[in-house]
Amino acid sequence: MPKAEGNRKEELQMPDYPRIGVSIAVRRGGSVLLAKRGKAPMAGRWAFPGGAVELGETLEDAARRELCEETGLTAQNLVFLGFADRISRDEKGSVSHHYVLARFLCAAFEGTPTAGDDAAELRWATLEEASQLETVPQLLELIGDVLQ
Q1: Is-catalytic flag, 121?
Q2: Taking every pair of C-alpha atoms in the chain, what is the biggest distance, in angstroms?
Q3: Among 1, 75, 82, 83, which residue has the fewest nearby CB atoms (within 10 Å)?
Q4: Which domain holds residue 29?
Q5: What is the count of structural domains for the chain?
Q6: Residues near 126 by beta carbon (within 8 Å), at least 6 away in sequence
């Protein structure tokens, strides 16, 4: 018996609609905290800490939770920066991942950064240092905006 279209998409891990996520730019002086992604999408690339919003969770609550889970930091103040699209395509051009990210800035926090959850590694980086890393799309532009 043939599989239903919805099941086929799940089997291929193709999204049927955009997911909502958060991205947190943590600033310290002239640098930002970057997380090396430990899981798909974009595994192995550097990005701001972040992740998916859970059912019933506000965007700000999701940002605080994801920041704590990935870095061990507690945000003292979050500023909403706007939304960004993260759309990945496979070699055939089909959408493999689609996230709409609520972006936040965190300039005041408590704790010492320690990689956790799906962050394989953390590091503070200036824009120049980040330009030498394999990053997610548009990260360097976002870093420039945050450090202005």
Answers
A1: yes
A2: 60
A3: 1
A4: 5-147
A5: 1
A6: 30, 31, 147
Asked if 122 contacts 38 with a C-beta cutoff of 8 angstroms, the reply is no
The single residue listed with the structure tokens 């706007």 is: 82
Is residue 20 scored above 80 in pLDDT? Answer: yes
Taking the model in full, what pTM does it have? Answer: 0.85
pLDDT value at 103 more than 70: yes
State both tokens at 99: 């996230």
Write down the catalytic residue from 5, 60, 110, 121: 121
- pLDDT bracket for residue 49 (50, 70, 90): very high
3-state SS assignment for residue 10? helix
Structure tokens at 63: 């940002």
Query: Checking DSSP bridges between strand 19-28 and strand 31-37, what pairing results, if any?
Result: antiparallel
CA distances (Å), origin 133, targets 4, 16, 33, 44, 100: 41, 31, 13, 10, 23
CATH number, position 141: 3.90.79.10
Judge whether 122 and 39 are in contact, CB under 8 Å: no
Among 16-20, 110-114, 130-134, the range scoring the smallest mean pLDDT is 16-20
